[in-house]
Amino acid sequence: MDHVIETRNLTKRFGRKSLAVDHLALQVPRGSVFAFLGRNGAGKTTTIRMLLHLLDKTAGTAQILGLDSVQDALEIKRRVGFVGDGQLMYDWMSVDEMIWFCKGFYQGWDDAFAGEMKTKLELSGKTKVRALSRGQQAKLALLLAMAYRPELLILDEPTTGLDVVVRRNFLEGVIELIQEEGRTVFFSSHIVHEVERVADWVGIIDNGRLIHCSTLEELKAKVKRLVLSFETMPADLAKKLPNTLLLSEAGRQATIIVNDFSEDTLAAARALKPSRLDVEDLSLEDIFVAMVGHPEEV
Amino acid sequence: MATARVHEQRPIVSSGHPLSLCGRLLWKEWREDWLPLAIGVGLPLLSRPLWDRFDGSPFLVLNFLVICLTMLWAVYRTQNSVTGANARTALPMPGVPRWLFAIAVPLIVPASIGLIFGGLIRTWPAFGEMAGLGMMPAFTLYLMAGYAICTVATSAFTAFPAVLIGAGWMILTNPFEINHLEEKSLLCVLVVAGALLAQAVWEILAAQRIFFAGRLAIALALILLALFPLGMAQSFHREEVGGEWRFTPYPYISGTYQASVDQFHSKGPSGLLYHPKPSVRMNDLIHGFDSFAQPLGFRDATHVLVGQQKPGEEKLHLLEWDVAADTVREIIAFRTGRYALYRWHSELSPDGRYLFFYTDSSPASVIRKIPIGFDLWVVDLNTPRAGVAATGMMANQAYIGPSGTTIMQPFQAGRCYVKDKDRIVEINLATLQSRAMKAREAKR
Known about the structure:
The complex is a heterodimer.
Chain A: E1 3-14, E2 18-24, E3 27-29, E4 33-38, H1 44-51, E5 59-64, E6 67-68, H2 73-79, E7 80-83, H3 95-103, H4 111-120, H5 134-146, E8 152-156, H6 164-179, E9 184-189, H7 192-198, E10 201-206, E11 209-215, H8 216-222, E12 224-229, H9 237-240, E13 244-250, E14 253-258, H10 263-270, E15 276-280, H11 284-292
Parallel strand pairs in A: 4-9, 4-10, 7-8, 8-9
Antiparallel strand pairs in A: 1-2, 1-3, 1-5, 5-6, 10-11, 12-14, 12-15, 13-14
Chain B: H1 2-9, H2 18-53, H3 57-80, H4 95-104, H5 108-122, H6 135-157, H7 159-173, H8 184-207, H9 212-236, E1 246-247, E2 252-254, E3 257-267, E4 274-282, E5 285-288, E6 293-300, E7 303-308, E8 315-322, E9 327-335, E10 344-348, E11 354-360, E12 374-380, E13 385-393, E14 406-412, E15 415-419, E16 424-428, E17 433-436, H10 439-443
Antiparallel strand pairs in B: 1-3, 2-3, 3-4, 4-5, 6-7, 7-8, 8-9, 10-11, 11-12, 12-13, 14-15, 15-16, 16-17
Helix pairs in contact in B: 2-3, 2-5, 3-6, 3-7, 3-9, 5-6, 6-7, 7-8, 8-9
C-alpha cells in the first residue's frame, strides 16, 4: 500500500521528563480520510507539527509524500495543505488581501477554485481577518490551504471552537471537496462522534503512543460490547474474559467491552453460562472512550 | 528531455515566482511598517523646536521613547510574524526571501529613525562639539542593533525576557551614556519598568483583541508617562556627575588666595539618587552649600563672590561669602536661563564693584532664535542690579570658551570696552547698556 505519511520511532521529548510522542509508527494510506484521535494532550498536535517541521523532533524519522520531513521541509510545505488550530494569519489584512498574499507562495494556485471556495464558504473579500468569526477564520484557513490543490491536506483540530452546525458543515464540506479529487485528508480531533461520519481510517494516540491504527470498519469489528445476564453474578468477570477493556455491573447484568473480538471471545463468554448473551456494535465514541478512558473516569 | 522528466516527477506545484513573492512581501512590510515609521520619524521632527525651548528635556525623553519604540516594535514584529525566519510557518518561504525579509528589510524602520534622530541631534547647538559627524551613523547602527537583539531574543526566549534583554542592552550602550549619570539605578528601574509595563499592557490588549493602532497608542502613552520623570531626572541633575567621590573643578586663584569647589555626592534615602553636597573652599576654610556653587572672584581679601544655580532653575544667584565671619548673603539673582554655570567666565572690576559674567546664550536672552555664542552679563554689585550688556559674543580664539572674549581698556570713565571675534563693544557701566563701535572709533 502507498503511504503519504510514514513515521518510524518518531519521538518528541520536552525537557527530560515529558515525553509527548513516544516512538510513533504511523502509516497513512494515499487517498484515505484518516482521523487521528486522542484526548487533549495525547500528542496529536505535536505529531503534526513534527510532520511539517514546525517543531523539531527528538528522534525517529518522518516521511511525507516520500520526502523527509526535515531535509525536504520546504517542498513538503509546497505540496501539503495545512489548517492548524489557531492558524496564524495577518489580522490586519482583508480576506482578499490574505488570498492575494498567499497566492505568491504557490505556483499551482488556482484562482478559479479559490473564487469558487470563497463563494461556497460565504466569505466576504473586503472583511478584515480580525473581524471574522472563529468559524469564518477556519474557513479562510481552509481556502488558503486548498487553493493550490495540495496532494495531502492536514487538519489539526480544525473544528475546535466552532458551534455544532458549523462544525458539521465544515468537516463534511472539507471531505467532500478534497475527496472529489481523490486526495488524502489527515485530520486530528478529540470530538470523536463527528469523525465517524467522515473518516475511513482511524489512528488512536494515547500518552504519546499509537495504540490503534486501522480502517474504521476493522476497528468496529474488533471492539464489541457483550451484555451478559446471570442468575448469580460470577466473581472476577474481567479476568475470565480475554482483552476486556471495560466492565460494568448492574444487578445481575454485566456489560463488557472487549478488544480483538473473535469466536474465542464468544466461546469464553458462553463458558460463563449466562442466562442471556447479546453482542452489540459500538459507536466510534464508545470505542474511543473504552480504549483511552481511565476506568474511574468512565 | 530532462526538463520534461522533472515535471513528470513533480507534477503538482513548485514555489511561486520569486519576484511575485518578494513584491507581496514588500507590500506587507510597507503596510505593517508605515505607522511605526511615521511615529519614529515624525516625533523627533515635530518635537525639535521644543528641545531649545525646554533646554533639552524633550530630547532626553524622546531619546528613550525612540529606543523603547524600536524595542517594542521588534518584539511585536517577531511575535506576530507568519513568514519570519523564526516563525515556524506552514507557508513555503524559500531561503533568500525568508532571510531577506526576516532580517534585512525590517531594519529599514530603525535605520530611518536613527538617521533622522541622529541628524536632528547635529542641528542642536546645545550639544556643541559632542554631536560630531559620527552621530548619525552611530545612532542608526545603535537602533538597528537594538532591533536585531530584540528580534533574536524574542525568537529565542519569547517576548518578556526579550524586553528585559533589550532594555538592559540599550541602557548599557546608549550613545548618550545614561549609565554614567548619577541616576543610574533610577534610570535602569524606570526604563525597564516603562518597557515592561508597556509590554504587559500590550499583551493584555492583544488578548482582548484591541486593534493594533489602539494597542500602539496606549503602549506609547504609557512609555511616555513612565519615561517623563526619567527625562526630568536627567535634566535636573545634569550638573551632578559621579558617585561617592569628590572633585575640585575651576579653582579661582588670585595671588596667594585660592577658592575652589569641593563637590561630594551621597546617596539619598531611596538609594536610587545621588545628592550633591558641594562646598566652597578658600585656602583652608570651607563653607557648605545646599546646591552646586562656584566661586566667581574675590571682592577683597575676605569676601568671595559665589554663583549658585539649583538644578532646573532659570536664575543665577550671586552670593557673597564672608570668610572671616563664615556668613553668606545673597547680593542679587538674575534670570540667565538654565546651565549658567555650565560654560562660563567671570571677571571683577579692580574696585570689586562690577562683575562681568559670560555664559552660553540662552532662549531667555535671545528670543525666537537659536542661541549662539555667549551672553555678557554686567552686574553692579553695589546697587545691586544686573543686565545683559551683549549677546551672541564669539570667542577670539579658535577654542570655544567665554574666556576667549577679552576685555580691553576696562573701567575707564564709567565705560568698558569688550572685544570678541568680530566686534568691539562699548559698555556704559552706569546704564549697563552697550553699543557696537564703528571700526574708526575702535582704532581711535
